[in-house]
Amino acid sequence: MNYKTFAAASCAATAILAIAGQALAQTPPVAQTNAPPPVTHGAPIAGVCIMSIPGAIAGSTVGKYVDTRMQQIIQQVNGELNGERTAIENESKTLQGQAATLDRTTAEQRGAALQVRVNALQRKAQQREREVQATEQKALGRVGQEMEPLIRQVYQQRQCSVLLNRDSIVLGNPAMDITPAVVTALNAKITQFTFDRERLDQQPAAAPAPTQTPPQRR
Fold first, then answer.
1. Residue 146: what are its φ and ψ, rounded to 5°?
2. Measured between alpha carbons, how far is 187 from 59 in angstroms, rounded to an integer?
3. Closest CA to 5 of 18, 214, 13
4. Paired strand residues for 50
5. What local confidence, expressed as pLDDT, does residue 31 receive?
6. Count of CB atoms within 10 A of residue 67's CB?
7. CB of 60 within 8 A of CB of 179?
8. Cα 120-98-106 angle, rounded to 5 deg
9. Half-sphere exposure for 89 (CA within 13 Å, toward CB)
10. How far is CA 136 from the centre of its chain?
11. pLDDT band at 103 (very low <50, low <70, confident <90, very high)
């Protein structure tokens, strides 16, 4: 057993865990020593509205619920993978401690079995990462579906002629921003919904192909 190989594989699994744990990681704001000067906006442009969809999701009750639930799911995944990784590391230490007393065949067999567990953990960590990403995408998709008709509703209420992405402009008059109104409507519509981690390893079995009866001769 090459213990350097094991260590490298274990580190790779740790790195994958770190990637999975960053599914919903927020970038910390950069500290500013001086507050920016206030901006004086011109008059709102009639019919022009702006909105931030990520801002609406993040500011809504249901968006915050999704974020909290995703953190719980990530903790569960990390707990599962960390438990298996600890067991592998303990077995590796035991094997190293017994190396002087084991015959070569036994040591190689146990080392190979340990490497199989390391490889399996790597595959599981990669799969859990994909599952976390799929879960987040599905949950945010649900929020988007709930919000879409509300955007249209507020758009018409504010008599907008065009709706621009607030995140794509440098500055805009807050009076043209319909994000707060959409958040208020979304909070009144839904605050949370049940969802769990997507299981990508539980795909439905394919239906058996229909049997064809051979043509009979006449």
1. -70, -30
2. 10
3. 13
4. 164, 177
5. 55
6. 16
7. no
8. 65
9. 12
10. 4
11. confident
DSSP bridge pairs for 51: 165
The DSSP code sequence of 156-207 is HHTT-SEEEEGGGSS---GGGB-HHHHHHHHHHH-S--------TT-PPPPP
Dist CA 64 CA 131 (whole Å): 20
CB contact at 8 A, 128 and 15: no
Handedness of CA 64, 69, 75, 78 (dihedral sign): negative
User: Which amino acid belongs to residue 48?
Assistant: V
Query: What token pair was written down for 68?
Result: 């909290």
How many CB atoms sit inside 10 A of residue 148's CB? 11
Rg (CA), the chain: 27
Phi, psi of 216 (to 5 degrees): -90, 145
Question: Average pLDDT for residues 107-136, to the nearest whole number?
Answer: 93
- Residue range 171-193: average pLDDT? 96
Q: Is the pLDDT of residue 154 over 50?
A: yes
Q: pLDDT (tens digit, 9 = 90+) per residue, 126-152?
A: 999 999 999 999 999 999 999 999 999
Q: What is the pLDDT of residue 134?
A: 96
Whether residue 30 has pLDDT greater than 80? no
